[in-house]
C-alpha cells in the first residue's frame, strides 16, 4: 500500500519533524508495537508519525545508505503487523509500505493519530510478562506515560482536531480526483502512479481524508479544504483577502479575494503579492563598484507569515485571513489567536515552542508542499530574513482573550519616507484623458498581469496589433502600466502590470 508522501524526503527529514520519525535498523516487534501505540496516542496533536524499519540512526538522524532488510522479511513483517495491531487496545492499524531506498529494501509504517485514544499496548510480548500500558512520544523517544500524561490522554479523547473530523454535510463526491492527483504528483508520491489502478474510495482511505463505515464513508474537513474546488461552501471563512492601500487614511485601495483549495489560495495570494507589492531596490554606494540591493519586503518572510495564518487559523470561524498592505507595513490578521500556553508575552520571543496545534493535518499537507517550515522554525526564519534584508524586526501580537493573531512586517527603512511621499503625491494624482481602448486595457490589467497577446485577444482586436503596440507604448511612457521584468524587455515571460497611477485612472 503506497503512502501519500515521498519516502526519500521523509527519511531525510524534509517532510516532517524528526521527532515524528523513528528509525529501526532491524525488525523488533516489541519496540514497533510500543511506538505504534505512542504515535496513535499523539499526545501533542502533531499528526502521529512514521516508523522506518531497515534504516539505522545516529543522534536521531538516519544513516544512509540504509542497512536494509532481506526481501523475504517483508511478507513476514506484514503478517506480524496484523497480529500486533490486534494486541493494541482498542485495535489500531497503521498504513504500511515496503519499498526500496538507494537500492535497499525498507519497510515504512505511517501511524496517524487515532480517533479512539487513549491506546494501550502490551508491556512485553513475552508470555512471562503480562499487562498493558499507555505509550507516548516524549521528544524523539517512545516511553510509558506517567499518571499525569495518562490523565492528559483521557482528556484528549474527546478532542479530535477540527481538520481531522468527519464532515457530515459532505459526501465522497465532494472530493475531486483531479486535485488529489495533482497534489500527489507535486509532492512526488508513489501513490500518484497507483491512483488510476485503485478505486477512488481506496485512494481516499490511503490519503486519510475519509472516515467512517463502508456504507457511510464521509470526507474529513482537511480533505474538503484541500481537494474541493469551493471549500468556502463548507467553511465560509476559508478565503484570503488582500487589500493594497494607496494612501494613509485608507480611502484609496484595491482589493482581491482568493478562494479555492487552501494551498492554492496560498500560492496565488503569494504570487499576487510578489507581482504587485514586492520590489527590489538598488542603491549605489559612492566609492564602491557593487551597489546595495534590498527589497521593500523579503518574499520569504511574507511567505512564512501567510502560510502560518493558513496553517494555524480556525476554519470553524467565518472570519477570513486579511492581508493589509499599507504604505509602511504589511499586516496579516487571522482568527483566533494562538492556543495556550502561547500568549502575547510569548510572541515577543524569536523562538516559540508550542505543544498544541489547531490543524495537525493541514500542517502535514503544507509541509509536504514545502509551503511552511517545520515546527518551531517559522518565527526564526521570519526574523532572519528580515534582518538579512536590512528590514526592521517583525511584530507579532494577540489580545488577552487570544481572539486574533496579528503579524506585522515593517517596510524597509529606506523606503518608508519614499512611500509616504508617494502617497502625498498620489492624493493629487494627475488624471489622464484616456480613450475607450486605454481604459479597457487598464481595467483588464487591474485583474492581474497579462501578456500583450492576452490583452489583444481579450479585447477582440487581434487584427489591430500595430495600434495596440503604440497604445501600450504610450501607457508605458505615462507610467500607467509597467513591465513585470523591467530590466529585461525581451524576457520570455514578459507581461504588463498596472501601476498605482494607472489604478487611479479607473477608480
From TrEMBL:
Pfam families: Fic-like_C, HATPase_c_4, SLFN_AlbA_2. Residues 440-499 form the Filamentation induced by cAMP protein Fic-like C-terminal domain. Residues 17-143 form the Schlafen AlbA-2 domain. Residues 484-507 are annotated as: Disordered. It comes from the Bacteria. InterPro entries: Fic-like_C, RecG_C_sf, Schlafen_AlbA_2_dom, Schlafen_AlbA_2_dom_sf, WH_DNA-bd_sf. Residues 488-500 have a biased composition (Basic and acidic residues). This is DNA binding domain-containing protein. The lineage of its organism: Bacteria, Pseudomonadati, Balneolota, Balneolia, Balneolales.
Amino acid at each position: 500500500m503506497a503512502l501519500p508522501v515521498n519516502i526519500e524526503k521523509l527519511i531525510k527529514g524534509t517532510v516532517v519533524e524528526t521527532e515524528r520519525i523513528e528509525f529501526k535498523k532491524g525488525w523488533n516487534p516489541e519496540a514497533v508495537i510500543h511506538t505504534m501505540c505512542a504515535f496513535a496516542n499523539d499526545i501533542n496533536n502533531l499528526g502521529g508519525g512514521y516508523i522506518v524499519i531497515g534504516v539505522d540512526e545516529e543522534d536521531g538522524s538516519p544513516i544512509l545508505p540504509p542497512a536494509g532488510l532481506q526481501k523475504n522479511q517483508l511478507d513476514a513483517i506484514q503478517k506480524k503487523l496484523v497480529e500486533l495491531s490486534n494486541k493494541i487496545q482498542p485495535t489500531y492499524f497503521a498504513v504500511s509500505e515496503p519499498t526500496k531506498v538507494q537500492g535497499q529494501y525498507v519497510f515504512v509504517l505511517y501511524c496517524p493519530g487515532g480517533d479512539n485514544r487513549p491506546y494501550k499496548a502490551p508491556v512485553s510480548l513475552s508470555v512471562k510478562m503480562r499487562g498493558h500500558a499507555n505509550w507516548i512520544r516524549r521528544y524523539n523517544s517512545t516511553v510509558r506515560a506517567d499518571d499525569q500524561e495518562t490523565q492528559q490522554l483521557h482528556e484528549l479523547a474527546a478532542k479530535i482536531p477540527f481538520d481531522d473530523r468527519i464532515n457530515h454535510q459532505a459526501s465522497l463526491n465532494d472530493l475531486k480526483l483531479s486535485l488529489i492527483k495533482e497534489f500527489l504528483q507535486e509532492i512526488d508520491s508513489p501513490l500518484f502512479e497507483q491512483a488510476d489502478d485503485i478505486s477512488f474510495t481506496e485512494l481516499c482511505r490511503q490519503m486519510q481524508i475519509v472516515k467512517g463505515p463502508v456504507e457511510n464513508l464521509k470526507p474529513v474537513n482537511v480533505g474538503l479544504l484541500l481537494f474541493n474546488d469551493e471549500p468556502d461552501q463548507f467553511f465560509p471563512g476559508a478565503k484570503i483577502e488582500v487589500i493594497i492601500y494607496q494612501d494613509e487614511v485608507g480611502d484609496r485601495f484595491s482589493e482581491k479575494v482568493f478562494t479555492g483549495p487552501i494551498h492554492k489560495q496560498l500560492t496565488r495570494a503569494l504570487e499576487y503579492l510578489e507581482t504587485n507589492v514586492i520590489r527590489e531596490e538598488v542603491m549605489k554606494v559612492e566609492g564602491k563598484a557593487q551597489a546595495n540591493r534590498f527589497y521593500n519586503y523579503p518574499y520569504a518572510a511574507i511567505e512564512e507569515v501567510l502560510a502560518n495564518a493558513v496553517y494555524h487559523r480556525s476554519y470553524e470561524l467565518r472570519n477570513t485571513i486579511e492581508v493589509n498592505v499599507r504604505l509602511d507595513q504589511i499586516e496579516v490578521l487571522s482568527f483566533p489567536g494562538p492556543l495556550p500556553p502561547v500568549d502575547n508575552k510569548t510572541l515577543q520571543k524569536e523562538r516559540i515552542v508550542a505543544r498544541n496545534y489547531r490543524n495537525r493535518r493541514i500542517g502535514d499537507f503544507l509541509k509536504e508542499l514545502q509551503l511552511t517550515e517545520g515546527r518551531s522554525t517559522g518565527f526564526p526564519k521570519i526574523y532572519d530574513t528580515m534582518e538579512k534584508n536590512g528590514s526592521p524586526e517583525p511584530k507579532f501580537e494577540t489580545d488577552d482573550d487570544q481572539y486574533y493573531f496579528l503579524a506585522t512586517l515593517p517596510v524597509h527603512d529606506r523606503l518608508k519616507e519614499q512611500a509616504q511621499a508617494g502617497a502625498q503625491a498620489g492624493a493629487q494624482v494627475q488624471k489622464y484623458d484616456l480613450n475607450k481602448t486605454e481604459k479597457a486595457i487598464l481595467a483588464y490589467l487591474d485583474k492581474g498581469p497579462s501578456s500583450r497577446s492576452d490583452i489583444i485577444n481579450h479585447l477582440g482586436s487581434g487584427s489591430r496589433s500595430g495600434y495596440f503596440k503604440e497604445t501600450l507604448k504610450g501607457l508605458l511612457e505615462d507610467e500607467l502600466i509597467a513591465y513585470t521584468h523591467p530590466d529585461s524587455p525581451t524576457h520570455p515571460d514578459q507581461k504588463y502590470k498596472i501601476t498605482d497611477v494607472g489604478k487611479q485612472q479607473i477608480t
